[in-house]
Amino acid sequence: MKRILVVEDERHLAEGLRFNLETEGYQVEVVETGEQALERLTPGSRQFDVMILDVMLPGKDGFAVMSELRHAGQFIPTLMLTARGHSHDVLRGFEVGADDYLTKPFELAILIARIRGMLRRREWLQTSVNSPAPPPTPKDVFAFGDKGDKAINFDLLELNVRGRVFRLTLMEANLLRYLIDHEGKPVSRKTMLEEVWSLHEDTDTRPIDNFIVRLRRYIEDDPTRPRHLLTVRGIGYRFVAVPGVQVK
What residues contact 244, with CB distance under 8 A and at least 6 apart? Predict the structure, then answer.
């Protein structure tokens, strides 16, 4: 039975989620604070398969909880709940490592569908890691660099740079995939907001720059002099797989 941790301080909402998720066949534990969530997810504690995490919590908020978990190497699939739904809140959630978000009030059917999607991906990853499997297809892995010594595995959310492996969040991988799919072409920040995160309102685009800075730390030999993730002044960014080679 799949286990879900619900982190929500609104008691009526938390109990409603518990009732409906248990009706769907999940085992559910509810906590009210960020501190309690971090205690439940410490190494050696009972494992959860998915976390539903409210942004507005007493004490440590959802952003702080998510950030601490990711820095500790805990990559539990997480659906963040936000009451406001502002683009800035959504992007901040993705920036600290959330996999998905819903705006309150939400439809229960949509929440259930999002949870099922995250569980399917988690099961696929566990199968891929623990069981023998054929080599990934070209759609799964993209190699780049002067000698092809850098590669991203989009299914495993792993970036391999000359033997060093970096674990990406889902949204980091999605952003990099979008830039790779448009290799050689300038992509505006607004386009990235709309196409990668489905945000169609005017918002601060600085979170996009923060994502790029983080990706540059992973893939560039010298992040201050990028050769793959290039800035296009006044527009956005451009991805170059092999510096010096023109893309047709």
Answer: none
Inform me whether the pLDDT recorded for 178 exceeds 60.
yes
- Separation between Cα atoms, residue 49 and residue 3, nearest integer Å: 5
Q: Which CATH number belongs to the domain containing residue 188 in this structure?
A: 1.10.10.10
Where is average pLDDT lowest: 18-22, 28-32, 135-139? 135-139
Q: Structurally, how many domains does the chain consist of?
A: 2
CB 79 within 8 A of CB 50: yes
Check: CB of residue 44 under 8 Å from CB of residue 71.
Answer: no
User: Is residue 14 located within the same domain as residue 117?
Assistant: yes
**pLDDT > 70? residue 204:** no
Query: What's the pTM value of the predicted model, to 2 decimals?
Result: 0.71
Domain that holds residue 106: 3-130
222: Cβ contacts below 8 Å, ≥ 6 apart = none
Asked if residues 237 and 229 have their Cβ atoms less than 8 Å apart, the reply is: yes
Per-residue pLDDT, 78: 93
Three-class DSSP category at 58: coil
Nearest to 46 by CA among 97, 8, 81, 1: 1
